[in-house]
Amino acid sequence: MAAIPTCKCLIAGQWTDARAERAEDVFNPSTGEVIAKVPLCGEADVDRAAKAGLAAFDKWSETPAVERARVMFRYRDLLLKHTDEIAKIISREHGKTFGEARASMQRGIEMVEFACGLPSLLVGETIENLATNVDCETVRHPLGVVAGITPFNFPAMVPLWMYPPAIVCGNCFILKPSERVPLSAMRMGELLLESGLPEGVFSIVHGGKDCVNALLTHPDIRAISFVGSTNVAKHVYTTGTAHGKRVQANGGAKNHVIIMPDADMESVVEGLKHAAFGCAGERCMAGSLAVPVGNVADEVVKQLAVAAGKMRVGRTDTGATDIDMGPVITRQHMERVRGYVEVAEREKASIALDGRKVHVADAPNGFFVGPTIIDNVRPESPLVKDEIFGPVLSVARVNSLDEALALGKRCEFGNGAVIFTQSGRSAREFKHRFNAGMIGVNIGVPAPMAWFPFTGWNASFFGDLHIQGREGMMFYTQQKMVMTRWPAPPSAGKREPGWKPH
Ligand code: NAD
Fold first, then answer.
1. From 297's CA, which of 20, 192, 456, 470 has a CA 20 to 30 Å away?
2. Does the structure show a pLDDT above 90 at 241?
């Protein structure tokens, strides 16, 4: 049997053993097998990475912005060349289908493309003659050493939301990938070094809670980007800011999908199937609560149950392209997700499709739950309120758009929300009034692409400046204001009337 490899940290341009004594298993969720060990780093490893970043910062921040961006042009080429290879790693360690893994790489590469063009966003502003002969300008400076902490559900894409823009802005970056899926991030780290990034500008440390806390409290780390569940996001925000850091922390979600009686049924069924069951429901923008309005409900549930029931659930570690849905991330998570079907049984909701019945013959130890639809859930049910983060779609029937909007107002989260309708009036009402930050009209998953911010609200986001787009660049830079006056020498006798030295 091949030995199980232990993940190395990337510090000062070298792959090195962690100082950590403890390690955790990384699983292949399709088979339940252990494929790697991930060290649980703490203060010692974080300090090594922060020192390496600090040592590299002066030179990197003085490197012209266009040269910093050129590293990203080379990185983009390498990521494109290695897309399939990295997609296979994602499928193996996370359980996305090959198609889903490739699509997530594409979204991540768009962030690199955004970072290639970042110098044009870094330009400052100037007013000449703000006061007599006084010019005023703003310029943007990098912060220093910054860190990113990422979740398991997009092993390549979410890290790419963070480090390409941070690095082109002139910062040094420490990535702490999810301990469940460290392998894709490490391969992408190798390619970043190959792109010619100087040593120390990008580091990787591993682990969970202790590693995160060491990052949040390290005096040399200036800012933290976080993506993960709401409770941890809250902890990261309060601890990071209490230690004087800038923090942007994306949290969990429960995204409502409102279906009006006039909606185009084919788009609804396709959109909902993709939104609820794509990536096995493990997406912060998954549509997890369908809210059909009026008499459209029976037809939506009936047609969706047929379409979702035909989805092929199977192992994703073989590179197979003929499956529609892979496993969820761990055995515990599979049990938690299945537990919600038991909640439905206890609450006497109607189970229109039961994912517990799915068996994958060639992977009996994999962490599988099939597409599940639970109809007639009550507004106060955990099926409406909790983020299940699996392939479970709850259906809460309502009688009007107003009732659907009121249900949205009671939601703790505020990541995304969608309406399917052919009425401009309903769409306008929804987009103006719904209590969430990312809105879709006849689009199942309104996740913004690199050029737009990821604008979660409420318990889906803690901070001021969101990830991606111009706000992402603003997060990774600080402004300096410069006032200038160049008086003519007194000997030239050209001082303007009333000139006084301030
Ligand atoms: P998680 O919160 O368990 O873990 C996220 C990160 O936090 C990991 O790197 C982990 O090591 C660390 N962590 C875990 N527990 C910690 C603790 N007690 N103290 C300090 N650090 C800790 O999230 P997950 O299960 O990996 O990912 C799924 C969650 O991420 C879902 O809630 C999903 O909605 C959310 N998510 C949000 C977005 C978004 O943009 N809003 C995007 C993707 C995922």
1. 456
2. yes
Atom of ligand 1 nearest to the CA of 389: 31
Taking phi over 0 as left and psi of -120 to 50 as alpha, with beta for the rest, 24 belongs to beta
Q: Which CATH number fits domain 255-412+416-441: 3.10.330.10, 3.40.50.300, 3.40.190.290, 3.40.309.10?
A: 3.40.309.10
Instruction: Give yes or no for residue 235 CB within 6 A of ligand 1.
Output: yes
Nearest one of 413, 362, 16 to 229, comparing CA atoms: 413
Residues 387, 323, 276: CA angle, nearest 5 degrees: 25
| Residue 153, ligand 1, Cβ within 6 A | yes
Sign of torsion over alpha carbons 294, 296, 301, 304? negative
Model pLDDT for residues 398-437, shown as the tens digit of each residue: 999 999 999 999 999 999 999 999 999 999 999 999 999 9
Q: Is 284 a catalytic residue?
A: yes
Atom of ligand 1 minimally distant from the CA of 415: 41
Cα–ligand 1 centroid distance for 150 (angstroms): 7
CA 252 to ligand 1 centroid distance, Å: 8
Protein residue closest via CA to atom 16 of ligand 1: 209
Over the stretch 37-91, which tens digit does the pLDDT of each residue have? 999 999 999 999 999 999 999 999 999 999 999 999 999 999 999 999 999 999 9
Domain positions in the chain:
9-252+456-483, 255-412+416-441
CATH of the domain spanning 9-252+456-483:
3.40.605.10
